[in-house]
Design brief:
Blueprint lengths: L9 E4 L2 E4 L6 H7 L3 H6 L9 H18 L4 E5 L5 E8 L8 E8 L8 H15 L5 E7 L3 H9 L3 E12 L2 E11 H4 L1
Parallel strand pairs: 5-6
Antiparallel strand pairs: 1-2, 2-3, 3-4, 4-5, 6-8, 7-8
Length: 186
């Protein structure tokens, strides 16, 4: 049995930080994900976003962190400790895998301030230094220029374009896939 996950607080920038998701984050999830702004830029967040969706996501992410024995999914928090976004890993088994895919979203009110760029930077450093990963990958919709810029500002390289790769709302969307190797940063 793996040990209790570390209770971390990773500084993103003045007043903003990463920490593990909590059951008490449910109201913030419901508040930020009720509009279509975040939904339109992500693949797996449903709309409308329900209480059951929030409960399910929180329970899965908390259990995932516990299973790994370390935090791998983080809430992005503001100075009031309120969840304003998420940066997280998927398809990760610490000790068995050398790479993972990251995903992220940020509440609409915080877009355009560089917060996500800084949050991804903090996550990248943690993933390489503390989780021992060698590669991170991320997908984004071809039209999601903001997400692509977050990745590029953090040193991710465009590894390819995937035609009609995602299906959402009955439509097919092109995607970009980015990768970052630990050796590119350290």
């Amino acid at each position: 049995m793996k040990s209790e996950p570390q209770k971390l607080k990773i500084t993103v920038r003045d007043g903003f930080y990463l920490s593990g998701p909590l059951l008490t984050d449910k109201p913030a999830l419901l508040e930020h994900l009720h509009s279509k702004d975040v939904y339109n830029t992500t693949l797996s967040i449903p709309h409308p976003y329900s209480e059951a969706d929030a409960d399910s996501w929180l329970l899965r992410r908390i259990a995932y962190n516990e299973k790994q024995g370390k935090e791998v999914s983080f809430a992005i928090r503001n100075v009031d400790a309120k969840l304003i976004g998420v940066v997280s890993a998927d398809n990760l088994e610490l000790g068995d895998t050398h790479k993972t895919e990251i995903g992220y979203w940020l509440a609409r009110d915080y877009w355009g301030q560089g917060i996500m760029t800084d949050a991804v930077k903090a996550y990248v450093n943690y993933a390489f230094e503390e989780l021992g990963l060698l590669k991170l990958v991320a997908h984004c919709f071809e039209l999601n220029i903001g997400s692509a810029r977050v990745l590029e500002k953090n040193g991710f390289k465009l590894e390819g374009r995937l035609r009609k790769h995602f299906r959402k709302d009955g439509k097919l969307y092109d995607a970009r896939i980015y990768g970052l190797l630990r050796e590119d940063l350290f």
